[in-house]
Amino acid sequence: RFAQLCEKHGILRENIIDLSNANRCLQARE
Hints:
Layout (H helix, E strand, L loop, with lengths): L1 H7 L10 H11 L1
C-alpha cells in the first residue's frame, strides 16, 4: 500500500527509501 501511494505521486519505489520522498508519502496518506 505504501509503495502504491508513492507511485501515484510519481515517486519511484526505489526512491521511497529517501526520507524526503517518504515524508511526501506520509503527508499524502493524511
